[in-house]
Design goal:
The protein is mainly beta. About 0% of the residues lie in helices and about 50% in strands. The chain has a four-stranded antiparallel beta sheet, with no helix packed on it. The protein has a three-stranded antiparallel beta sheet with strand order 1-2-5, with no helix packed on it.
Length: about 110
């Protein structure tokens, strides 16, 4: 099982002020639906998935997603951001077991 809650964030190398950039993220999480049966025990694997993702650019919420069991394991998400200032980009995600994880990277347009 991957390190639950670990995230990779990829930004373009050279960002111009005012440029719309693609922010690519990969969140390590099993995203169990609750429908799968364990082959060894023959019991249902309990549901365990990310249900809330929020993205902040500086102090502004710029993206919010409510997720369900329909999202695959280790979800990859791309979103677009207008890089109009130097500011931290923080991604916060929560799962149904109460886990709260976050990662912050710096956006520095030139």
């Amino acid at each position: 099982m991957p390190a639950i809650g670990k995230i990779k964030i990829r930004l373009p190398r050279n960002i111009r002020k005012g440029q719309v950039i693609a922010v690519k993220t990969l969140i390590m999480h099993p995203m169990e639906t609750g429908f799968r049966t364990d082959k060894k025990t023959k019991k249902k694997v309990p549901a365990y998935y990310i249900n809330d993702v929020s993205v902040y650019y500086g102090d502004t919420l710029v993206n919010h997603s409510d997720w369900t069991i329909a999202v695959s394991a280790n979800p990859f998400m791309t979103f677009y951001l207008k890089a109009d200032k130097a500011a931290p980009l923080k991604i916060v995600w929560k799962d149904i077991k109460g886990g709260v994880y976050e990662k912050t990277v710096q956006v520095t347009p030139r």
